Amino acid sequence: MKKLPVFGALFLGVLTAVAVTAGSNSPFSSYVGERGAISVPKDYRTKWTFLGTWSIATKDGEPRGAAGLHNVYTQLGIVEAFRKTGKFPDGAVLVKELLKTNTEPMTTGQVSRGDEIEGWFVVIKDTQGRLKGNKLWGDGWGWAFFNAGDSTNTITRDYKAECIGCPIPAKHNDWVYVGGYPILSKRYTYRRFLQNRSRQCCYCSAPWDCMPMLVPDR
User: Fold this and answer.
1) What pLDDT was estimated at residue 82?
2) Contacts of 5 (CB under 8 A, 6+ apart)
3) Does some domain include residue 156?
4) Domain-located, residue 108
5) Is the CA virtual torsion 83, 165, 180, 77 positive or negative?
6) In a domain, 3, yes or no
7) Which pLDDT score, from 0 to 100, does residue 28 have?
8) Taking the CA of residue 98 as centre, how many other CA atoms within 13 Å lie in the half-sphere pointing to its CB?
């Protein structure tokens, strides 16, 4: 499976806003099947809240610009719930949309913009641990990556082997890089957690202690 930095510089209101739908196959989310299968919400672009964008830089020797853009969305009401409690509520969904980019000179300079969808990464908050034994679920979330063209069938088989490595530095924040989503940070501030310098980010190989985290003000 192609390894993508889906949590990259990562990834996830009121009860009526956390995708609880009458007639759903799941007791807590309309994006979860009865056996724990996860699907990509179809209306996230037009009906959900935009949280923020991650820009993946090109490598040395490649043309200047962004190699990819990752746009992140969540349901209406989740931001308000997070601001009140500092936690994502049960049933909260974070959709990370991975885009290819088109880079060209414009009047403002060299500019990269989003182009075709490469895939989606979806996480769904499960505060109850409902799906024990299911390899897509654990550590408080359901985890699934989807290739473009198939938003129903995930290619993820084991979240521990394929997903959780990238957000390890954000474990203190429920596995989410909330620093990339200023809309969440009304009651939060940046601090640095000193980590073992020998431990490194699985994507950028930077020491973990270089990364600021958002933690509650006290």
Assistant:
1) 95
2) 56, 166, 203
3) yes
4) yes
5) negative
6) no
7) 79
8) 21
Q: Are 70 and 100 a contacting pair, CB within 8 Å?
A: no
- Mean pLDDT, the chain, whole residue set: 80
Residue 133 lies in a domain: yes
User: Which residue has 């940070």 as its token pair?
Assistant: 185
Strand order in the sheet with 137-138: 49-57, 66-74, 93-106, 109-125, 141-147, 137-138
If you average pLDDT over residues 196-214, what whole number do you get?
Answer: 45
Query: What's the number of domains the chain is made of?
Result: 1
Question: How many C-beta atoms surround the C-beta of residue 72 within 10 A?
Answer: 24
Core vs surface per residue 176-193: b (16+ CB within 10 A) or e: bbbbbbeebeeebeeeee
CATH number (domain holding residue 137): 3.50.70.20
Model confidence over 65-88: pLDDT tens digits?
Answer: 999 999 999 999 999 999 999 999
> Which two three-digit tokens encode residue 110?
């060299």
pLDDT tens string 14-62: 333 343 333 344 457 999 998 999 999 999 999 999 999 999 998 888 8
Task: Give every CB contact of residue 75 below 8 A, 6+ residues apart in sequence.
Answer: 13, 17, 18, 19, 48, 49, 92, 93
* pLDDT of res. 62: 86
Domain that holds residue 34: 15-187
